Structure formats: structure tokens, C-alpha cells
Fold this protein.
Amino acid sequence: MLVQSRSEFQRAYDTLTHYRGTGFRVDTETNGLNMFKHDNPARMCSIQIGPIADTNLNYYFPFRHGEGENLSLELLNPLRHLLNNTLWLGHNLSFDIKILLQDGFAMPPRIRDSLIAAHTANENEKVTKHGKAYALKKLCAQYFGIESIGAQLTLKAELKARGLSTAEGGMENLWRLPASVVYQYGVDDLSLSQRLHENRLEVLRQWRTDSVYEELCDFQLALIRMEMRGIQLDKEEVQRQMDNIGPRMAALQAELAEMNGGINVNSPKQLTEWLKLPKTNKDFLMSVMEGEPRRDIRALLDYREVKKATSTYFDPFLELCDADGRIHTNYKVHGTITGRLSSSAPNMANCSRDSATRAYSLKRCFNASPGKFLFEADYASVEPRLGAFYSKDPGLVELFQKGLDIYRPTAERMFKVSQATDEQRTSAKSVVLGTAYGMGAWKLAVKLNLRHHQLPNGEYVYHYEPVWSMKDGELSEIACSAADPVYCSCEGRSYIRSYFDAVPDLQPFIKKVIGMAKRNDYMRYPLSGRTKRVEHYYNPQNHRQEDNAHKFYNFLLQGSAADIMRRAIVAIDKTIPADKAGMLLTVYDSLVCEVTAGPGAKEVCDELLRLMETTTRIDPVPLVADAKCRPSGGDMAKYVR
């Protein structure tokens, strides 16, 4: 029902009040997608509300439509009271909550989100012509038929007739239309979100993951509070680094033009011809440089690095910061297939890193608020610890229990030496982490620069031990040299074999994980009960086909690490008072907080670390979190408990 007068509003409000105990379906239409922009931030143009207990009641309250009648903004007050301290249900509620917070609404204490339910039920959804993988209309068209999204198709036709863009479903232009044109689309969203939620919840119950879904909804609320805080950007530092990068960029462009005659260095085709190499991605070029330092490749890599600093980091930081100079990223609970978070607008995945050549420092671009300091804690070697926990290899478990550097003893076992060199330790570390991340023998050979034996005249000496190679979807057994004439996958395989010999209980466990996943077409994360469907990663019709099955162990470790971090974030959100410390960012296994300086600050930091280490237990392997702290500017210093 479209509500456009005070009398209609009062009747709708009185009706909805009776349902406060059971909660509401909530949705919004907006005049943009970024509510934090310092110039022209997005705001709500309408609110749609319907009681969860009655799917036939759906109200559309217009407030900021560009055409037609709107309700007075003073009527937001009773809606704030109506929704306060109630359960909200919707699709991608994170967006709607943050939008409504801009207009003085309170955070709901509990939510149910059909997007999170859909991702928990199946993390392998694909993009279709009806939208992104987890878009409401796409999922409804997929599960309920095209007729379920008729209002969207009608609205898109109206937008096109008016010459308005329909990108992102036309979200940014809906406010330009009168409410009388948009309201059916809006109230349909309320009904569809509940219908989809009930459909996916039934799947979750069948898989016994409905409690996991509820945990993820709590996690989403903690992430919203994190996103709302944002992190303080040091604009002067950003500008200083950009000023330093400018001349460096110009010099590198001139150097490259001198060497290549002015080709387009952003064109892979032109680069492969100029460099006379089959590939020009960073990993491949770095591996070439390890064996044969080349000025042209070094200049290209440096150019890419400084170019990325401006286009990927500095420009977006300045464009997306709010009026107070804070950056608010958007975390996606549904962003990955393993359960790890992804972030966007801007992507903060690398915000804690410095460039490899020290051309810039992202760390120095962020400050603490006055009277506070930054505190960054991260799990130490969480994937190898999980490998020890799951495999129960006594040697690995003992190393972690004693708090030793696991890579040097592992190297000594791998290479059968009494004292491993730094180079051997580095190789062992690459094998340990590479195995955890699903790295194959050839990729390890490239990373460690393991080449076929080369004679003084430059010719390679090949051996013909067969390896599996995947090409055009077909798996075949070929000679190692045919797989790659430079890098020796057999040598890479020998390193992996030596690692498994050094840690004898690990390989049988990995084979067990792969075997169970293949038999069941899914794997279950023991720490949380989440499931991961693997049918897209293995072809059971071909018993010789390994395909991407080696990734299953990586899925287990990364997904378990994500479960550990998720539970720690929820525990910190519920335990640490906001005036003592607030979480700002999480990047994989690390967590950045802003802690109030003064008496009691050390106790707060110690409690943050305690919660990270004890909220989830992986006995007999200890979870360990290390930390650094920094007030503003300068470098992070190691935190000592």
C-alpha cells in the first residue's frame, strides 16, 4: 500500500504497532549507493515496512522522491519509534541499516537477512542475466520463476522510457520517479525477501546449519558497527605520498618508453611481444627476475606498483572518505566461497601493507582519533596451526606447543640437515604455506625458481617423469618438460614430498579431506558446522581427474580461519565497551581497533588478545595473537603484554 497522506500514515502506523513483538520486514529505496561520500551522500527516499507475521501487509512510505507527493520528514519520528528494538528481516540489510542510521534510526538488536541465508545455503551461486549472484531479484527469478520479478521488469521499462540508467537495477535513479510508479516494486521487495528467506531457511534446516546462519546475522551487526566507525584518513600524508609518486611515475614511463619504443605497457599482447615472454603477470615476472635480473622487467614492475598506488588506493581513499575524513569500507559476508570477508568501496584488503619497494606506505595513511591509538592484532600462523590441529601430527603439535619457529625445524627435516640455512627455511615456509593454500608442484617450482637443470651453453637438460596437466578442461599425462620447458614441476613435487615425509600425519589427513569431499559433494567445517559444496571443483565422471580437488584442504583451513575470526569479532563486539575500544577493520587474520588512551588501556588491549585466542579453541594447539600499536603517524611498535 502506498502511503501519501497523514491520515493514511496514521492508519498504517496504528496497524503496524500491533506487530512490534514479532518484528518487521524492512527495505529502503535511496538516491545513491554510498551514504558516506563527503559530497552528496546517498540518503533514503522511501521506507518499506511490513510485519513478518502478515505477508499481506506491505506499506510504502515516500519521503524524498524527486516527483509526486512525499510525506513530511517529521513523520520519520514515529517510524523510528516503531522499528526501535525490534527484529528486522530483509535482503542485504546491511545497506538499509546504514542508510536508516543516517536519518536517526537505531540499530536493530537482531536481524534476519535472506542474502546471508542464501549464501549460507549455497556459496556457489552464479551471476545470471537477472543480476549478481546474490541479488534478490536474480535469486527469486531462479527459485520462483520470472513472473516473481514482474514489477522490476516494468520499472526498468519505465526508466528506459525516461532515458534513465538501469545499471545496478536502476537503484540510483528510482528516487527521480514518483512514488506512485515505484511503490509496487518496493513492496514486492518486502514480500520477496521473506519468501526467499523462508525458502533458504528450509534448506539450512535440512543441512543443520540454521544456527550457523543466526551466528552470521550477529556477525553482520558487528560488521555494521565496524563500518560505521570507519578509520581516520590522514589526507596530508596521502597527498604527500602522491606528490612523491608523481615524479617517480613520470621517470618510469620515460625509462620504459626509451626501452620499448613507446608501446602501450598496459597491453598484455604488446608486452609479451616486447619482453619475449609467454606471460606478463606479476608472479611470473618475479620468478623470471629471480633467475635472470632484467632492467626492463624491473622497470615494468616498479611502474605497475606506483600506478596501482594511485588508482587502487590513494584516489579512492580521497574520493570515498566522509566529511570528517574517515574511510568506511563495505564488508561482504557473502564475498567469498570459503567464508572469508571481502570488502569494497574501497577495498581495504591491503591497507595494512607497504609496497615491496617502499615506494609508498598505506599504513601511514591512517591515524587514530584524538585521545586514542591504533591497535592491530593478528593470528600467528593460523593456517599451519589449523593443519596441526586437524592432522594431529605430533611433531607439528609439539612445535606449536613449545612456541618455536616451525619453519626452521621443518626445513631441517625436509632437507635432512642439522642446521637449516635461511634459504632452506624460506623454501620450507613456501612449501608449508603453499600446501595450505592449495599450491601445486608447478606453481611452487615457479615461486622457488626451481628450473630444469641448465648446461653452460644455456640448454636445459630434461627428464621425462610424467605429470598431470589440465588444458581446455582435459586432464592428460605428459612429460614434465612439456608442461613447462623452464620450471621443473617434478622438482616442485619433490619438495612437497619431502615436506610430507617431514610431517608424516599431514598427507593422509589431506587425502582423507579430499576423499570425503568427493564422496559427499560437500565438506563441513568442524569448528562452526558450516558447509561448503564442492561439486563445481571435481568431476566424478572421470576417476583420474584431480581437477581442483587439491583446493579442498585449502577450503578447510581458510574457512576454519574465517570461523575463528568471525567468532572473535562477535565476542569483542559484545564484550568490550564502545567507549573503551572499537573495531575499525579486519583483513583476513588481522583486526585493527581504536583504543581509548589512558588508565585501563593496557587491560583493554590484553582483553582483546585474550578474546581472540580463547573464543574458539583448537586444543592441543594454542591459538596465538600478536599485536602492534601506534597513536598517529610514525610506525607501528610491537605490543608487549
